[in-house]
Amino acid sequence: MFIQVIRGKVKDAAAIKAAGEQWQAEVKPGAKGYLGSTSGVAKDGTFVNVARFESEEAFRSNSDRPERSAWWEKTSKIFDGTPTAYNCPDVTTFMGGGSDDAGFVQLMIYKPTDLNTLKELNQKFDPADFARPDMIGGTSAVATDGTVIDTNYFTSEAEARAGEKGEMPAEMQEMMKEYGEVVGNVEYVDISDPWLYSA
Description:
By secondary structure, the chain is an alpha+beta fold. It has helices at 13-27, 56-63, 66-75, 115-124, 157-165, 170-183; strands spanning 2-9, 34-41, 46-53, 84-88, 90-94, 104-110, 135-142, 148-154, 187-191, 195-198.
């Protein structure tokens, strides 16, 4: 899997949502290898779009299409400044990856101090150990500049907040401590009204 994440500030959430729906209607039909996307606008105006493709080759073939370029030229003007694009060829999924059943999505964006250690922790990580029925899927994507974007899918924001307050088993607490030592400063982007699209 290949993921591209777009992040930037917007002043008009309705306009960026309409642009996304236009992509789905007019550009998506010719997008080979497109698996789905998750997008939305946080309370502070931060827009994110997490687009999933079967491979980097499929993503590149879509990016090179003239209709996609024309769409982006118009859509980029909705942003307040230049948005950031993270191209992520290194993707790990859990619990089936992205879920179109999510009522709340939280992104965690950070640069780990040790990517190899982070990957080792991810291999040991089992969401079932959390005892969090509110968590229903997720992806962890490593961008070419070393930034990691974790996209976590939850049944609802209320259930996710309640789950955060629950006590974790001792073994999971220790693992979370290890994660904390590796991930460093984390930017959280909370999407209370996610726009979820499948292929």
